[in-house]
Amino acid sequence: MTRAVIEERVDLQARNTLCLPGQAAWFARVRQDEAIPELFDWAAEQGLPVLVIGGGSNIVLRSGFRGLVLAMAMRERHWEMLDSDTARLTLGAGENWHEAVLYACKAGYRGIENLALIPGTVGAAPIQNIGAYGAELSQVFHNLEAWDRSESRFRTFSLDECDFGYRQSCFKQDPDRFVITRVRLTLSRHRSFQLSYGELAEEYGHLQDPDTELTPLEVAKTVSDIRRRKLPDPSFLPNAGSFFKNPVVSPETVADLRKSWPELVAYPENDNYKLAAGWLIDQCGWKGHRESHVGVHSRQALVLIHHGNGTGDELLELAERIREDVRKRFGVILEMEPRVVGNE
Predict the structure, then answer these.
(1) Cα 341 from Cα 344, distance rounded (Å)
(2) 337 is catalytic
(3) For the segment 207-239, what is each residue's pLDDT rounded down to a tens digit?
(4) Residue 278 burial by CB count (10 A; 0-12/13-18/19+): exposed, middle or buried?
(5) Strands 77-81 and 86-92: what pairing?
(6) Catalytic option among 62, 149, 167, 182
(7) Catalytic site residue 242?
(8) Using one digit for the tens of pLDDT, what is the confidence trace for 62-76?
């Protein structure tokens, strides 16, 4: 009936990095574009909702899903050479993001080295406009292709059409409408490295000319080492990375907060400031907190973890208590990064 095999009653616990329990009533791996409209047509005929997942690194599985779960599995990597400095890299939605970063860095291209070791697939990267250490996907983004469920057609989205912001895009604003199939990035051999943010500045501040003294692969490996020191590996301690966004506030808010909290961690963000959500949570005493099945990481308060035998509801209840403590102490509202899914 379709170009993909549809399976019944598939366990999703191993398909989300928080390792939360849940089952898909129906499940299919999508390996080619042509299968997407056929699968959506099949689901519509059965009266089923559809959930699209990548690596499961940005979801909180609250329960099972009484519909069709589509796992994006398109694998594709190829270069479109432009000139002696610049190249365009096309990546299928099912490619592992970190492996794609290393692939580009090994070829000598710069632009995504700061985004190394971010978990998940390429197709999920534009949804969040992933970012780390002063870099964002939007800075190297060229375009992407996606299936538009509302218009029943494949579309190409330019940079402007994606409406990227801090951990934001048009795809996140309307999460059930688009299915990203491939992403194109414009990378360079000679663009300057972004090394002024946090631990990267400490690591490379002694260099006279980092643009000539470093390679993109060296920067990617340093970023990976920093992330490994700070963040737990989901393979050993289930988590979804940063659970909350760093809140963006006005200069006036920062000035007011520093009257009581002079050590407040804040970074300039255009005309505003980005607060370190992990620091706010830590000041409320949550770092290292553990309950029966869920808790907060001992080295990074921004990461909530699942110790096993827990549920999505337990994790979300903990997250809500953390949000309320931060609101009471600092007057700042934390926003969750992962999407809550499940309907049982």
Answers:
(1) 10
(2) yes
(3) 999 999 999 999 999 999 999 998 899 989 999
(4) buried
(5) antiparallel
(6) 167
(7) yes
(8) 989 999 999 999 999
Which of these CATH numbers, 3.30.465.10, 3.40.50.300, 3.40.50.20, 3.30.1330.10, describes 77-230? 3.30.465.10
Where do the structural domains in the chain lie, given as residue ranges? 6-72, 77-230, 239-341
Rounded Cα gap, residues 316 and 313, in angstroms? 5
Of 95, 113, 136, 337, catalytic: 337
- Tokens 């706010």 label which residue? 280
**C-alpha–C-alpha distance, residues 202 and 166, integer Å:** 24
**How many residues belong to the chain?**
344
CA geometry: angle 172, 176, 179, nearest 5 deg? 85
Distances from the Cα of 226 to the Cα of 107, 128, 200, angstroms? 22, 21, 9
> What pLDDT, in 10s, does the model give residues 16-40?
999 999 999 999 999 999 999 999 9
Residue 285 is encoded by which pair of tokens? 């005493």
CB neighbours of 25 closer than 8 A, spacing ≥ 6? Answer: 8, 9, 48, 64, 65, 66, 67, 68
Helical H runs in 129-169? 159-162
Is the domain spanning 239-341 CATH 3.90.78.10? The answer is: yes
Which two structure tokens, joined as six digits, stand for 338?
């992962």
Residue 2 has pLDDT above 80, yes or no: no
